Structures are given as structure tokens and as C-alpha cells.
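stage 2 :: seqdesign
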């Protein structure tokens, strides 16, 4: 079981990801959102090892203080440049 204080601390850290970190595009006006972005290298099945392709993701929940919605977004082999 996760202690209430630990859950609160983790939620605060995840809120910072959305407020001023790599997940700012997930912010919702009037709601506290918590989440985490991720990027993973994909294995090159021909050469072996990691290739140049990526898998990008965001998982989050809202409202952060009493979650009612959770969402996972996964983009396989994103193209273009990230917008700020």
C-alpha cells in the first residue's frame, strides 16, 4: 500500500512536469494536472541494438487532487520538431 504522504509528494512532482517541465502542453485551464513524459529508443531488428527511431509518451491524470480521468498518449516514431 502506498502511504498517503508518499502519494501526495509524487503527485506534486508530477504536477511540476505539467506546470514547468516537459509536459506543459498537457495543462488544462482551471484544473490541476499531473503527468509524466517519456521517450524510448526502439531496437533496430536488422542491425541489432538501438536505432534512430523513438517511441514518445505522456501519461497523466486530472484533477490531480482527486483524479477522475487518466490518459495515456503514445506516438510511435514521431516526426518533426517538438514545439515549445
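stage 2 :: out
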Amino acid at each position: 500500500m502506498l502511504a498517503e504522504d508518499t502519494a501526495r509528494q509524487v503527485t506534486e512532482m508530477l504536477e511540476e512536469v505539467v506546470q514547468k517541465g516537459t509536459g506543459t502542453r498537457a495543462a488544462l485551464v482551471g484544473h490541476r494536472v499531473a503527468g509524466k513524459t517519456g521517450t524510448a529508443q526502439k531496437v533496430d531488428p536488422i542491425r541489432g541494438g538501438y536505432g534512430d527511431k523513438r517511441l514518445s509518451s505522456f501519461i497523466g491524470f486530472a484533477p490531480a487532487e482527486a483524479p477522475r480521468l487518466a490518459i495515456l498518449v503514445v506516438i510511435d516514431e514521431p516526426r518533426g520538431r517538438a514545439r515549445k
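stage 3 :: structure notes
- The longest helix spans residues 4-20.
- Helices lie at 4-20.
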